[in-house]
Fold each of these.
Amino acid sequence: MNEGIDFKKIFQDAKKHLLIEIEYGKLTVAEKVSILLSRIILILVMIVACSFVLYFVSSSLVAVLADVTGHVWLGNLIVAGIHLFLLLLVYAFRKQLIIDPATRFITKLFFNPND
């Protein structure tokens, strides 16, 4: 009755298919993790570059404010206040500025069905 069905071949083919699917999954995860890590590295490089720019702009602003106010300490205090205000703004809008975009990126990266 089952003379024409070769169960051993079917099992071997299923095993090969499963191994290919596992290998494909590994490659997909490796690709997605490398994209994620490259994005993190890019963001870190941008943060460092922006820190240098912020430092020099702040130094220039301190010099200008020191000339205007006549006191270097007052220029430093005003610039520190500006930085504190900007920091509070970023903290207040952290969900819209940081958390939501990061969540969308990771979700799209790992769960996009169009791959």
Note: The CA atoms of residues 3 and 92 lie 73 Å apart.
Amino acid sequence: MKLFVNLFCTDIAAQLAFYQALLGLPEDSHSRSPIYRAVETEHFQFGFHAPPAYGVLQLADRQPADPASAPVTAYATFMLDNPAEVNAAADRTAALGGRIVKGPYATYYGQWQAVLADPEGHVFRVSTGTLPAGVEAPALTLPATAS
């Protein structure tokens, strides 16, 4: 099995370039079309649909008026090899037109990760299964909820 995840984007060429530069992922040139670009590894394909794909997929009624303010309902996590790669990806994000939502940090489940947004505002994470030397996983703290 291979997982394919696709984002609806305004500028599919720019999105492709961002993820290629940030993560060093190759383009899947076989799936390239006027309304689709993708990066691919042996384990997954991460693709970018242009706005006309809403209609092709019978989702025109779901197309947001302002994609930049669409709610975050899902996000990708790219598992990297070590904490230094997470730090480097976070460091490159702004220079490539994205933004850091939450800088590299230790999770309560023992991963080192950063929460980022691409140039069109899609949220994603870069993470690794180990913590930097000397860093311990914090206790889980949940935000207070209104009753």
Note: The first strand starts at residue 3 and ends at 8.
Amino acid sequence: MPDRNSPSWTLIESILAESEAIVALGITLEEMGEDTVVLRMTMRPDLTRDGTIYHGGPVASLIDIAGDMAVAVRAGGGVPTISLRVDYLRPCTGPWPRATARLPRHGRTISVSDVDVHDAQGRLCAVGRGTYSSIVG
């Protein structure tokens, strides 16, 4: 498992920090494992529908970014999204949602990432699957 001083951890943190959109969403790296990345998004009222329930757009963005970062570890940098599917299972509430991205397929040109989003109480709020280029760009 990569630690906070590993090249993989440094790569993902630099990608997250260099994107104004990611910084604006308050997304940070929480954990990494082999073919797994865990990101957290900080609660802000402007990311919610009513101050308590996250809007679907930021949740979808969290899923896409987490999936991308799972691929980026293997590819060596950020990669373009080819397609993204999101299923919302329940309202996502609480101080933060947490996205766990797993990389079931990393091919020469195409990679697939599966992402689960849980709220602070551990409830599964959304799931997503992203297809990404395996080529940095």
Note: The chain has a mean pLDDT of 95.
Amino acid sequence: MITRRSPARALLYGVFYRLPHPVRRRLVRMAVPKYIVGAVTLVTDSEATGHGAGRLLLLRQPPGRSWSLPAGLLRRREEPIVGAARELAEETGIELPAQQLRPASPNAVVHAKGWVDVVFEVAVPASQTELVVDGAEVYEAAWYRLDALPRLSPATARLLAYYGMGPLAEPAVDPESR
């Protein structure tokens, strides 16, 4: 048995779906929230070993008071993984095929102000990776131990917390302390 909820609602949908597709799309775009989508890459040092010895690639960008991750906005119709590889190359000089990046878990982080970060991971050997910055968009790129991170931008600190890293991450629970 099918129960109809509201005749007025059914009428509204009927009118909406009779409109030409471009008009419907424009109406939907006016009514739904809009998001800015960026691609972020967590680049770790594949050579770092031992407890707390992991290293993360960070960037110092204008105005230069804190550190952030390689990231940027997607171009129109650009796949997030392609945008992440492009931004990584532009900001650090690390040129990798997009297929070498792995989706992080979670792969997308939705921020409160209408911002979505699509996050990828890759591990490269720091000792064999030349970092190249332009001095304008990126002042400096450097590897930092996860247990000795520099001052992070607030957005970077919040994002890293999703992955159990940085100053805002929940401390790991020692199973023997229970």
Note: The mean pLDDT is 89.
